[in-house]
Amino acid sequence: MSLDVPTAVLEAAERREVTDEQFLAVVRDSLPYAWEVVSAAAADNTGDKPFGEHEVPPPSERERGQLLRALASTSIRGALERHFGVTLAFQNCHRVAAFSSAQVDSEIYREFIGIRGQLLNQSPELRDC
Hints:
mainly alpha, 3-stranded antiparallel sheet, 7 helices, 52% helix, globular
């Protein structure tokens, strides 16, 4: 199980009354490393850079698992994108980029998410990530 969901939030979900804020609190508390990485990438998305980015490999498999769960889940990823006001892109189990909505139709975004960008961001030490 990737999220530790408090009983009150489960009950709200059963009543179809769960909010983004409640869900985000569960994500932040359950996947703190992933929250930190996405938060850092979003904060790094400043006007002097083409996009915000986090490239540091996770310190352990536990943290890598958190990041993979957060970015592989459509609902978690979508909530993070709405909260931080970015579109997330992901490569190699650790490279997370945060693009503003204006950047999503840019050449740099297409390069990052394209097959060429993926292939050029490979290395033997990341083979099993």
